[in-house]
Write a structure and sequence with these properties.
- The chain is of the alpha/beta class.
- The chain folds into two domains: about 200 residues, Rossmann fold (3-Layer(aba) Sandwich), CATH 3.40.50; about 80 residues, Orthogonal Bundle (DNA polymerase, domain 1).
- The protein has 13 helices and five strands.
- It has a five-stranded parallel sheet, sandwiched between helices.
- The chain is globular.
Length: about 290
């Protein structure tokens, strides 16, 4: 889906600096490599006698999980395999059935893949030090997110607010979780918010809301490895994977792409510089009109 609002948030003249960030969960703040949803989806489809590749499991990552399953079933190889096994195309009842199976399986592995990613706690401390509010959005359900909130709090990370698709009416790439985050955080305008996440759906969520959109390449879905697996790669392979992940997020429209959340502060500095310059220009133009 193409962004609904292609205008850069930096064009807004009503925000002199950032006031909040909205962070994704798996692959951005917790679960290095976004392993929990990918592994669960592979189990669900294996139970349906379809072996799901890593790439197939991850192609629609970031969407609400029911829509993620629907997206996988719409892929030509998966649809053809389903028809061959069952004699009919997958329908809504099949999506609902697989989603119902997905939920308990996802719960069973969430705690295993809930470790806060290295550097996140220090970055969050920096964000609070510069006066930013911290919201979060996800493709998980509220019950799943509550489990992550509990385990992340035990590790020292608690955002100021959190939204799930069910609470906003729909999920990514639509902007409604972002809008509701702004309401709950009491932050305005949207151009004063930066959305950070590891999937194209995250990027589009930010763009569609009119926020700054920042992609996270190294710890997320496209690289798709645990920290230990990633560090064990030869340097050339690391760079190949990072290059692909950076390109995917940039092609989705991200204003900036970073490798980990630890790289975020310098990007926020650049955004603040742009917002300040735009605000000063607007004030100058207004003064000219008054004269």
């Amino acid at each position: 889906m193409r962004p609904l609002n292609p205008a850069l948030p930096g064009q807004s003249l009503s925000a002199a600096h950032l006031k909040a960030v909205v962070l994704d969960w798996a692959g951005t703040t917790v679960d290095f490599g976004s392993l929990a949803p990918a592994r669960t989806l592979q189990r669900v489809f294996a139970n349906a006698d379809i072996a799901l590749t890593e790439q197939e499991a991850r192609q629609h990552m970031g969407l609400p999980k029911k829509e993620h399953i629907r997206g996988i079933l719409s892929m030509s190889r998966i649809r053809d395999a389903w028809i061959k096994l069952r004699g009919n195309e997958p329908g809504n009842a099949d999506v609902e059935g697989m989603y119902a199976e997905f939920i308990p399986l996802q719960f069973s592995c969430l705690e295993e893949y809930s470790e806060v990613i290295e550097g996140v706690l220090e970055t969050v401390e920096h964000l609070r030090g510069r006066g930013l509010k911290i919201g979060s959005t996800t493709g998980y359900t509220r019950a799943m997110l509550d489990l992550l909130l509990k385990t992340s709090a035990q590790q020292g990370y608690t955002p100021d607010g959190s939204l799930t698709p069910e609470e906003a009416g729909t999920g990514r790439p639509y902007p409604f979780m972002m809008y509701e985050c702004a309401v709950r955080l009491q932050v305005y305008p949207i151009a004063a918010i930066a959305k950070i996440g590891d999937t194209p759906a995250d990027v589009q969520e930010g763009l569609n809301a009119g926020a700054w959109s920042i992609g996270v390449a190294g710890t997320g879905n496209r690289v798709g490895l645990s920290r230990e697996e990633f560090l064990a790669l030869p340097e050339a392979e690391k760079e190949t994977r990072l290059t692909g992940a950076r390109a995917e997020l940039k092609n989705a429209g991200a204003h900036y792409v970073i490798d980990t959340l630890a790289d975020l502060p310098s990007v926020l500095d650049e955004i603040d510089e742009q917002l300040e310059a735009a605000s000063e220009l607007a004030e100058g133009e207004l003064a000219e009109e008054v004269r």
